[in-house]
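Researcher: Next sequence.
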Amino acid sequence: MLTTQPFLSRSAWAAVVAALLCTSVLAPLLHLVVPEDSAFHLSDYALGLTAKIMCYAICALAMDLIWGLTGILSLGHGLFFALGGYAMGMGLMREIGRDGNYKSDLPDFMVFLDWKEMPWHWAWSDSFALQLLLAVAVPGLLAWVFGYFAFRSRIKGVYFSIITQAMTFAAMLLFFRNETGFGGNNGFTDFKRILGFSLSHPGTRTVLFVLTGLTLVGFFLLARWLTRSKFGRVLQAIRDAETRVMFTGYDPLAYKLAIWTLSAVMCGIAGALYVPQVGIINPSEMSPAASIEMAIWAAVGGRGTLIGPIVGAFFVNGAKSWFTQVVPEFWLYFLGALFIAVTLFLPEGLMGLFNKIQHKLRRKPAPEAADSPTPAATPEGRA
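Model: Next structure:
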């Protein structure tokens, strides 16, 4: 008789509920209600940093779906993250209106570059709803087209990783050019409002924080459901033995294309949430290093575990924040050493280490009482 595993264990459900309470109740209270002079007050910096890392955690989770679950290592997911951010940034730039430095209907960078009118791809940027749609549609469509030709050609392994990195590098060079209408190397910044609400207001920042936390939890539950479904089992089979999957009658192209596109959409949504909270988007988000860091988050946390990449994103970026403040010149050395140490000694990441420790504690035998008397043999007990 077949037995199905539960969607989430009791401890996992407790963790999900705790995450929801922390992001939607505890953090807003600590930020808005607790006085600033209190030790329990959540500062603007801490709120913004946590929100930024949660955006990164969504990208790490997306990376786990294609790398940990399906065995496809992408080194170009920073492109999808940046495209979602640029779509949101275009809408935020239009909301500045005449409050910019040049008091013009055109964004400041266009006035500086002596543009006379909006380029064609800015025609509908005054519609916030449409920009949200583009933040999802543009990364998803690009991923679908790229993935279709790559997977149909059966490009895999290191070759696939190289062409994804080449794709994001080419896009970065394109967005660096001033004539593309995306702000060149400066990108978009100096945002004022979102849907008419000031981005500097604590209430607005708190709402964005809550939305980011809810989105992260929602994507985690979606990913968990996918891994427990037939769709997820086929993806794991493709990761382990794609040729055998083809012989059983399944088409790997459709499955790989679906999860690849979903992961790109997740990164696009993360980028759209990132921009209004950080306040800037530029081509550096498309750099190969940004995409490689996403893979490092998944590897450090433990790929294939879903929760591991989220932990990895918080651990690595928290360490990055500390190092860049205290000893900024040693940050890259620490990151390199961390990745080497994980590769050599923790192939299953931090979650693998945690599971091993937990397993050893469970199997540890209870100490026997040394002074317990041994029952003496009695005549009745002899044969």
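Model: The chain has a mean pLDDT of 89. The radius of gyration is 25 Å.
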